[in-house]
Specification:
With 268 residues, the protein is of the alpha+beta class. It folds into three domains: 2-66, no CATH class; 70-175, Tetrahydropterin Synthase, Chain A; 228-267, no CATH class. Helix content is 54%, strand content 25%. It contains eight helices and ten strands. The chain has helices at residues 2-24, 101-107, 111-131, 136-141, 143-159, 177-227, 230-240, 259-267, and strands at 27-30, 34-40, 43-48, 51-54, 60-66, 70-79, 85-96, 163-175, 247-248, 255-256. The strands form four sheets. It has a three-stranded antiparallel β-sheet, with helices on one face. Strand 2 and strand 3 (43-48) form a beta hairpin. Helix 3 crosses helix 5 (143-159) and helix 7 packs antiparallel against helix 8. The radius of gyration is 50 Å and the shape is elongated. The protein starts with a helix and ends with a helix.
Length: 268
């Protein structure tokens, strides 16, 4: 009986000790979209996933990093192949690779340091390298090709730092005011040249039409003169005759006009 009571007291004491350990043992909570970097006396140990993690006071510390997709807006200036100033507004979506958050923190630091030391310089360098391959006109007409080049180079560069690129958007590309004015003047000149060419072509076509009409009319007159015989004239007159015989009045007396004598006589 005494042994049973002793065991009961030991069990209760053990339970109390466990409760005290649970209550007073420090722990850390890693929220959704985060990773914790566990350190022991300042030395990086491993990555902590989402959830509750016990730590040893004075021995362990935890640094939390966001692994969510983050957006960074960057404005850069570069030079084109034909030495024109190119101003680009870039929207970059990126995130820390969750399994490598400890390496990122160990080599680079927190998110702000990642942006300042890695993201911004990488975007500026890549854009300068890509824009230098194209003329200002090609940057506009081959925008998809330019973006593809930026995506490829930037992804390769960022991956080396245990980061991932989700999307790169060239939001706005513009040039200097002087270049824009030159482009506008060129477009106006091209439009005027096209208008002048159109008017010249129109005048040429109209002249050709008039010449062809004159030639056709002359040819018609020639054919008419060659083929208009007395017999044809007589037939046309008969076809149009309404049945009334024409009468010619002279000094002697009125007489009927013989159409045959009129046309055939004249031909003789």
């Amino acid at each position: 009986m005494k042994k049973s009571n002793a065991f009961s007291r030991v069990g209760k004491l053990t339970l109390v000790v466990l409760l005290l350990i649970i209550i007073f043992t420090p722990f850390t909570i890693v929220n959704a979209g985060e990773r914790g970097v566990l350190m022991q006396f300042g030395k990086v140990q491993r990555v902590l996933g989402e959830g509750i993690h016990p730590i040893i006071p004075l021995v362990n510390t935890v640094k939390k990093l966001s692994v969510r997709v983050q957006k960074q807006d960057i404005s850069t200036q570069a030079s084109s192949k034909d030495l024109q100033d190119v101003f680009t507004n870039v929207a970059l979506n990126w995130h820390i690779i969750p399994e490598e958050a400890d390496i990122v923190f160990q080599q680079i630091g927190a998110e702000t340091e990642v942006v300042d030391r890695i993201i911004n310089p990488a975007v500026e360098e890549v854009l300068k390298a890509v824009m230098a391959k194209y003329t200002a006109e090609e940057i506009i007409t081959k925008r998809s090709e330019v973006k593809s080049g930026v995506d490829k180079l930037l992804t390769a560069r960022i991956t080396n730092y245990h980061l991932a690129i989700d999307d790169v958007s060239l939001v706005h590309i513009h040039f200097s005011k002087r270049f824009n004015e030159a482009v506008e003047a060129k477009q106006i000149a091209e439009q005027q040249a096209k208008q002048t060419s159109f008017l010249a072509q129109k005048a040429t076509k109209e002249a050709e039409v008039k010449v062809n009409l004159a030639k056709g009319e002359a040819e018609a007159q020639r054919l008419l003169r060659e083929n208009l015989t007395p017999e044809i004239l007589l037939k046309q007159a008969i076809d149009k005759w309404n049945g009334d015989l024409p009468v010619v009045f002279g000094n002697d007396s009125a007489k009927l006009l013989d159409l045959r004598e009129l046309f055939i006589g004249r031909s003789k």
